[in-house]
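User: Please predict structures.

Assistant: First:
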Amino acid sequence: MATQHKIEGDHSRFRQIVRGKIRKELRKFITKGELVARKGKGTVSIPLPQIDIPRFRFGQKQTGGVGQGEGEIGQSLGSDGEPSTGEAGDKPGDHVLEVDVSLKELAEILGEELELPNIQPKGKHTVLTERSRYVGIRNVGPESLRHFKRTFKHALLRQIASGIYDPLNPVIIPERQDKRFRSWEVRPVPENSAVIVYMMDVSGSMGEEQKEIVRIESFWIDTWLRSQYKNIQSVYIVHDAEAKEVDEHTFFHLRESGGTKISSAYRLCVQLIKERFNPAEWNIYPFHFSDGDNWGADDTEECFRVLDGELLPASNMFCYGQVRSAYGSGKFKDDLDGRYAADDRVITSDIASVEGILTSIRDFLGKGR
């Protein structure tokens, strides 16, 4: 048992070392997007080449060498200064250590590093779910809920009281009146629910570099919000001059050409909210990513009408990330800032490159809405 406790302590210290390494290198992991490709079910495999696990290394037999034997101070332990031939060898090399970290722990590291506040759900909007709970013991019930210890105890007391218990032959046989069963009940439990609506411009001006930025940032946004809500869904909308709902894979790999009408995405977002996500029961987070290019001033005004009349009243907050592109106008963020500078429900962020992702995440999630 003492050995088990020691192992648990060693494992805990190792996890703290891993956590410190991840936090120290968080910006590097975010900008390179390594974690996104290593995501599994509830965990992420993180490469940590800096961590060296202590182990013994033994030399080859009968090769001599400088240890506690012969040798001079300062003598080289290498190959006597001869250059390496660079030929292939038959010995194993050093490998990168991969450590599995839960998405929950990764979210905690992100929150600590960016000093993100816990989210306060909008109003008191919750969904009631049913949860079973054991509340006591009773004399009747199905065999699957029989309480072994209580049943054994009652059988033992009955045999002792009746004088049939034999300490030299302690056979305890429960009878019907000895059996005890767990009792349970179903209680409604309030559970906060959220939906993330990702919208992205996929017109010709959004290249692979811009989509990679959106992919990485969406992963971290998703990781944080999933740590704040028990029930969460993600919806994906792509648009050029028209908008359509797609799955996650299509969202990050589709490329189309043509013009850009941002209002088409906002109208589809409102439609999906009306059909599936009642604002009285869901915390709603629309995130829109674009290079700032829009069809014209008329469509920008239409975006304002949709935001003011339907999208903002239904949402916890509305986030717009403008990814810089050599082909986009970059004007839509300025339009939003000019219109909603005093409205804390609208958050905009300028993402110049992958190095700007961390700042953008802090912009979006730093208010705890």
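Second:
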Amino acid sequence: MLFLIHCIDKPNSAAVRAETRPKHLAYLEGSKVTWAFAGPMLADDGTTAKGSLLIGDFTDLAAAKAFAQQDPYVLAGLFEKVTVMPTRKVLPA
């Protein structure tokens, strides 16, 4: 089942994001999760990261939450808020 992991960066945390990014990417790429989408959410300038949005196939909500809690970004204290919830793809069919 698909689960959405929506993360909002803490203010003034660009340095934490930049420093932790290689570990974060290795964590995602090294997982057995099938990703429908994984990437940063951007500010209005289209460049500055303000958070992360991940949509992946997990066995259940507990597995998605456990995965999110071990993300190096979470462990580094980057996020102000992390939300994990089930979702369903409608389009494209």
